[in-house]
Amino acid sequence: MFSLGFFPFKRAYRGGQTSIRRIKVVLAHDQVLFREGLTRILDREGDIQVAGQAASGEEAAEHCRLLVPDVLVTDVALPPGGLEGLLLLLNHSQRPRILLLPFPRKEKVEESVSSKVDGILVDGDGAELARSIRALYRGERSFPRAVIEPGPR
User: What's the rounded Cα separation, in Å, for the pair 119 and 116?
Assistant: First the structure.
């Protein structure tokens, strides 16, 4: 694996030619408009490929089984069952890194940190989303400081 700036690339050799492997992502959210917007944002990134979109936890788990993505970007309230339902559906041997999208309630953030997610994007733009996906792909975790370090009560 080599890095060109902050882009994590893996070289694959096929028939004497070198190709660059893109980070494979599945987007899971129950709103089509939201998924399509994120797809357009990520399509501008040369190293990230949206391989599939899912509207439910079952569909996300099926895409993860068939497409074997590197990262699953999902809404914590994805029906049915939210994050916990999705985690039960994913096969642990093919489990992608999981990045949660914004949600309004703080207790959900704390619950998510203690669960098996690899990152949370509470606020940010398309560049921040791409940075978080790249961090997860490199095996890092991606949590906002406010989530990890609770403020004064």
Answer: 9
